[in-house]
Description:
Order of helices and strands: EEHHEHEEHHHHH
Number of domains: 2
Oligomer: single chain
Radius of gyration: 16 Å
Mean pLDDT: 79
Shape: globular
Amino acid sequence: MQWVILRNTESAARTTALDTSVLRKMIRLHPATGLVELLNILAVVYQDGGKMKFPIMYENSRVPVWLSKITPINVWANSFAFWVWCRGEMSDRTKNHETIHYVQQRELLMVFQWILYGLFHLIGLIKYREGNKAYYENPFEREAYANDQNLNYLNERKPYAWIHYLRKQDEAV
Length: 173
């Protein structure tokens, strides 16, 4: 597995199929927003056999800083659809954690994962009355935290593995 990281004002992605120089030419950021242009994402998907296996990662982003202002936790990195934003440089563990979230989103067609994530968070807020605890007890987060140190997890992971983390929330996995 090879991580391709394009620093600062460039985007980044993990790939095994594409040459780094080809990837750098295909992925450009919009100068004002810093977001990857949709056509470039489609180019990566096309080159990857029609299925985007890994998210496009963006380091040194302000997106997590903005999210930290409206969430109960200090956000270091965030996975949303095809993108991962991180406020600094990502470790392999962080890349793996956020890629687990990307795979969860992909298997639930993005929008259904977002809905379920929100519902699980709301249930956690009601149950624990603490945003931090609700975040860590979310089954999507429980799967990601339990496996982010295993860099081979995504190769071993069974579809919908997050369902196993729906058990009693306080129970150890």
